[in-house]
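Q: My labmate handed me this sequence with no annotations at all. I'd like to see what the chain might look like in three dimensions before we decide whether it's worth expressing. Could you predict it?
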Amino acid sequence: MTVQRGSAEPVPSVHQLKVGLEGTRPPVWRRLVVPSDVTLGSLHDVIQVAFGWDDMHLHAFEDRLGGRYAPPGDLDLPVFDEEEAVLGEVLPGVGDRMEYAYDFGDDWLHRITVEAVRPARDGEGEYAVCAGGRRAMPDAEDIGGVWGLADLLERYADGERPSGTVVRDGGQEWVEYDGLRDEVLAGLHEHGFDPAAFDPAELTTALAQVPLRRAAGTRKKRRKGRGGRGERQVPPGMYRCECGELHPVPGGAGLFVQDDGPAEELSLSDVLGAVDLRPPAVRLPGEAELARSVREVPAFMAAVRLGRWCGGGRELTPKGLLRPKLARQAVDEAELWRVDPGEWGDAGERAARLAKVRSAGDMEPLELPWEWALNCGFVEVEGGRARAGDELPDEGDDAALLAAWQGAMAGAAVELSLSFPSLDGLLGGLPPLRELTDEAPPLVFLMLLAAYGLPDGEWLDVADYLAGGMEGLPEGPARRLVWALLADQYDDTAGALELFGAAERESHEAPVGDAAIPLLLDGLGGLGGEYETPPLGRFRLTALGRSGVRTLLVAAGVPAPVVGSLDGADARELLAALGSYRSEADAEAEVAGWLAARSVVDAAVQVVDACDGTEPPDALRRLQAPRVLAAVLQADRGGRAEGVLRKAAVSKVTGCSHAAASMLRRIGESAEGEEAWGLEWMLVDGALPFARRGEEDLRTRLLEGTEDGRRPLDQVAERADDLWRAGHPHAGEVLGALADAVKPVDKALAKRLRKAAFKAGSAQ
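A: Here is what I predict for the chain of 764 residues:
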C-alpha cells in the first residue's frame, strides 16, 4: 500500500498497529510499526517475536467479515493464503481490526487494531519497529493459555519456588520438575523475571532480525465471476451474504447452489467430507511430459500467447474490446487461429474474412482465447488497456506452465460440475423440482472423482453412474427432468475439460440446448409426456486431467498420493497413503524407496512415532505400520530397529507402544504387562474406522481374504475373549459393532464379542 502526495509519485506507507493479548490482566500489548505492503504471513513472524512465541503451533488471522488467513493446508477450514494477503488491503484504514489466534490448544488470541496509516519516514520500512507496549511475557508456550499464564504469574508473585529432582546420567546433571509450569516458574526465579518491565528498544533490536516479505506488485485483478471491483475473493467453502460478512457454506441444507447465494456458494470441503473420499494412489507422468501435453492444448496456449502479445498494453474500445485493427493483428501475431486450424489456417482466406469483421466481439478466432485469457488472469484490463496479467506463465518454464494449467482446469471443473443449472424462469416456478434438486447430490462432480480413481485406460459409463446416483429420487416425470438437467451439466463440464485436454468422451450425443426445456414444453401442466435423454456415452480423464483433479484434491486437503513420490515424505504421510495403493507391488516399491532415503533406526523411530492417537485416521495409519516395520526389520542388519521397538513398547504412548508391542509379537518376542496385549489392541484398532462407516463396511472388511488365506474375521475369532483386555479407549464401541457385523455369519462368535463388549464397558 502507498500514500499519495498530490501529483507526486506514490511513497511507501507504514501501519501503526496495537496488538493486544486478549484475556490478560493487567493487559499485555505491543505497538508495532510495519510497512503497509507486508504479507500477513510476514506479520505473523513479527507477532511471534513481539510476544516471545516459538512458532511451534498452528495459527490463523480472521478479519471482521469472517475471512480467515493462514498457510494453505494447515487448517481443515477454508482460508485465504496469508502470503497472498497484504496488510494494507486487509486493514486499509484507521480503526480497522482483526484477530490473530496462535496455538489452537492454548488459544492465545491477539487483537490487532490499526492506530495510524502514514507515509514512511526516512529509515522506516526496512524492518518492524516497536513503538511502545506494556508488560513482559514469560516463556508461555504450552502452559494452558491465558488461564495458565495467570496462574503462573500469581504463583511467581507469591514467591512460590517449585522443588525439582536432581537427575544424574552419564556424568551430566540436571533438574527435572513436576510439569512444564513448574519448570517455567523455576526459570522465572532463576532469571529474575520482572513482569512489569518492558523495553521497546530491546524488542526493536530483535525485530530487526526478522526479514519482511512484501506483496508482489499490486493486488491481482479478480477473475470473471469471482467478485467485483474492490471485493476480496471468497475462499472455497465460504460465501458473502447481504450483510457483507463471510460465512461457511451450510452442508446439510442441500448441496446445490441456491438462487439467493453467490455463484460459488457450494462448499467443496463439505462435498469431499460427505463422500469420505480416499482416492487411490495414481501414476502420473513427470513434470516435463505433463508440460508437453499442456503445450498441445490449443485454446489454453492461445490464451497464453494472447497474454504475452498484450505485453505492456493494448488499446481497448469503450466496451472493453480490442480495437478491430488490433484484434486482427492478435489473431495473426499471437497465432490464435491455431485453436481451429481447419477453419482459419489458410492465411489468405483468414485475412479476407477478418477484414469484413467490424468488431472484435464478432472475431471468432479471438473469442475463446480472449475469454480464457481473462478468466485465467493472463490478461488484465484496466484504464482502457489490456496488459499481460500477473498469472501469465513463462511458456518455457515447465513448472510455471503446468501450474497455470492445473489451476485453470481445477477452477473450471469445480465451477461447472458443482453449479447445478440455475432454477430460474420456468424452472424456478416448480417447487417440487426445487425440492428434488436440493436433495440431489453433486453427481457430475462426484463423477470426476470416480473417473480420477479409475485404473489407467478404463472408461466410466456416464449414464450408469448418474442413474446410480439418483437412486434416492422417486420415479416419474420430475426425476426425468432432473436427469435432463444433469445431462446438460455433464455436457458442459465434459466439453470444457475436453478443450483443456483433460478428458476424453466416446459415443456421446450432446443435448440439444437446454435438455430440460423440451421436457417442460412437452408436459408443463403436470411434468408429464415422454422424453429420452441423448446417449451420454463413456468418459475418462487424461493423465493431464488427472493431474489437474489431483491439484484440486490436494488444495482441499485430501491426500492424493502419486506412486513413487513419497521418498521424502514423513512417516505419517507414507502410512496414510499406503492404504490407497491398488497394487501390492506398487506399495512395496513405495516403501522400499522411502526406506532407501533414511537409516533403519530413523525409519523405525519415524514409523512408531506416526502411530500415535486413538481416532479412526490414526487407526488407518497404524493398519499400514506392520507392512513398513516388516521392511525395516528385514533391512536391519544389526538389530537396532528391534531395539527401537522394545523401547517404544514400554513407552506407554498410546498407539505407539501398542504398534511396537504388536510387531514384536509378530516376530516372536515375548512382552509383559500392558504391552502384552498389543496385538489385541491393534485388532480393535484396525476395526475402528470400518465400524464408524457402518455394519456393511465392517463385515466386508472382516471377510476380506489375505495372501496367506487368513481373514481379519479369523484373527478376531482367535482372540475374541481377550480383545477387551487391551484397554483400547474405543473397545466397547468396536466390540459391539463387531458383534452386530458377524451375527449373520457366526452367531456364536457374535455372542462372545457381545460378552467382551460388556467387559470392556465395565473395565472403563
